[in-house]
Amino acid sequence: MTSNTLDKVEILYDAECPVCAGYCERIKQDNIALVDARQAGPLLEEITRLGLDIDEGMVVKKDGQIFYGSEAMREIVKVKQASRIERLLFGAKPVAAAVYAFCKSVRNVVLWLLAIDKIENLK
User: Fold this and answer.
1) How far is CA 84 from the centre of its chain?
2) In Å, how far are 30, 32, 58, 90, 118 from 5, measured between CA atoms?
3) Which of 9, 58, 106, 115 has its CA 20 to 30 A from that of 18?
4) Which long-range contacts (CB under 8 A, 24 or more apart) does 79-83 make?
5) Which of 69, 39, 66 is closest to 53 using CA atoms?
6) Measured between alpha carbons, how far is residue 38 from residues 28, 34, 117 in Å?
7) What pLDDT digit, counting tens, does each position of 3-23 carry?
8) pLDDT at site 49
9) Is 42 helix (H, G, I), strand (E, B) or coil?
10) Which residues contact 75 (CB under 8 A, 6 or more apart)?
């Protein structure tokens, strides 16, 4: 079970990426706000000021704290009804980092195959 399913969280993700969008659609629930990183907004501006490249990692904002990349995935698993496999893949930091790196590579290949430009928020 999750530690606190009532936490309000924002997830900044690439809505044009079929991998990202598909995953985020699956995790929708009342306490999770999905934020399209391709639309200007306060969360995108905040992570850009922090120097975080949205093309290199998903972002979760929870209780005013920013989580990035595999740490963002670990937070998602904590706030949603995570499956057993999600808990196994993202529960431990070293495993989460490796799995996230693989997922990011898949995303990059999919974007390339579909000729979808990266977001490039740091340019």
Assistant:
1) 19
2) 10, 10, 20, 17, 32
3) 9
4) 79/2, 79/3, 79/4, 79/5, 79/7, 79/9, 79/31, 79/32, 80/2, 80/5, 80/27, 80/29, 80/32, 81/2, 81/5, 81/29, 82/2
5) 69
6) 19, 12, 10
7) 444 568 999 999 999 999 998
8) 96
9) helix
10) 9, 60, 62, 67
